[in-house]
Amino acid sequence: MDSIDPAATAWLLASTALVLLMTPGLAIFYGGMVRTTGVLNMIMMSFIAIPL
Please, what sign has the CA dihedral across residues 36, 41, 45, 46? Predict the structure, then answer.
């Protein structure tokens, strides 16, 4: 079995953090594309998609 590459592990953690930081911005973007009554629903759907 090969050893774990520290550079690959660091890149994986950094890219995961960037995706998690991108989610609120994407939720606000999607929230701006719907009617006023559906903004909260769209934002919550974006945040619920994180653990999936």
Answer: positive
